[in-house]
């Protein structure tokens, strides 16, 4: 797990090496263990492997300093967090034994050992035990199709000397980031947006279309564009080739909606899930540094912990956050059940519910873009705790709820499918079980069927317009913001409502957001975060199975619960009280940070943004009106902090 950056002037003009060096320094937190650079002059076919301040001594003494006289139109930079092969052989930029390609790579290819054995049988030789060298040789053997063989999380930039092409790639789910900017002459890439805006390469300018979608529709980036003009994100599951002819992108993976696995028994589905999930966890235990698990007490993280316990010989550290002042944010009763099952060494982040504005400012700096809720801040603090305990790699349960319909909002899509398929008897049976377990009131049942009816008779576009009007009617945002309205229609991949919603969650909405802050929160503290639920084999399998393996009766994540019998403690396995990452958002926004947020809403900068109706926001906040929800307050706070950190303060 590391950080990468680079500049490619396709017009052969020399790059600004100080810009490149600053790009590397801005992501020191992603890779404090080593630093390296490569300079390429494509006109004269010359290459210069260079060192900088944090380069390890084994290379620093033998390589020229990056700012020494050497004209280059390509520069590649790397910051290393040592995970696999801790020796100097893991230094990047790295080349193959015949110096045909050079690579900077962020992430992990978990199945690198299996690919390496295949490449050795094909005649390739290796000088290290790294997955980086496996990627280089895989590219030499299979070209751009090499990424289809990788099971992992990665962002790659590889200079192909023979083809004079910069080959870039991002993993299937987008666990690792890859940002770029291209003006027709200069292509710039990096792991974090701040590398572009705070290095002097790009003047930070606001992409107001994304600001609009964020504030008005609670959406983050649903296309390749970011909150900054002229800075884009290589989409997940895409490759890109950059040459003097420009850039060319191509998608290399997607869910096959026609691939179905039907007709099996519940036990067969449960066994299929257990086998795939166990292998996903096992692969992610490969590490040459201390490894731990972020354990919340929920189904997903508990499943990871219990499966991991099968494969380790020494106690594995678990990390949990709870808030002493409020039992609803304390999951220890479930965490204790998991700890009883195996070989664990628990560590707790015992938090009171206080938080300082200074801490939040640091958090927002690392995020690069506004943050939808306060939950990521709790995860940020947990990663801080993980690193303090000497752990560098941590497994966590991101993606389980989003793939297996773990939230109650998914029930309405499941019921809608039953209505569409005229399965009224089954609907009545399912609703009876749901009502029995959750003791729904008459009003709640009416509300549920109203939502189903609306989705049955109205197109999604009209429903979104209704939600949009509800936000607009609060009057918190100016007419100027509405001018940037840019509603992006999401692809309807499945006729099945539940699977289609889960697909949108995977590709366009929740999971890209979750992975954004998962990467930033872990890397801010030099921790590598691994997400077994997003193993592409498991994702493909989950989308191929019947929907009643995801929701049945009052149970979400049916196949996971079934597959974890005799593995998970029953108290955890049978939980139906879905708790997200516990965060006291309301307390923070309306009490603990009341003075600071009041000052922010009353500030000159806030009033002069041109997008906020500051007086209405300030008035609603002081009155603590029921229509001004804690998460909306947080979004506005996050938006203003983003402006201050990245637009007002350019250095």
How would you concisely characterize the structure shown here?
The protein is an alpha+beta fold. 41% of the residues lie in helices and 16% in strands.
Helix residue percentage:
40-55%
CATH superfamily of the largest domain: Aminohydrolase, N-terminal nucleophile (Ntn) domain
**What ranges have pLDDT less than 50 throughout 5 or more consecutive residues?**
none
Specify Rg, calculated over alpha carbons: 25 Å
The strand order across the widest sheet is: 3-2-4-1-10-9-11
- How far the N terminus sits from the C terminus, by CA atoms, comes to 26 Å
CATH architecture group name of the largest domain: 4-Layer Sandwich
Number of strands: 20
- What is the CATH C-level name of the largest domain? Alpha Beta
Specify the structural class.
alpha+beta
CATH topology of the largest domain: Glutamine Phosphoribosylpyrophosphate, subunit 1, domain 1
**Outline type:** globular
Please state the average pLDDT score: 92
Count of discrete structural domains: 4
Q: Describe the sheet with the most strands.
A: 7 strands, antiparallel
Strand content: 15-25%
Work out the helix count.
Answer: 27
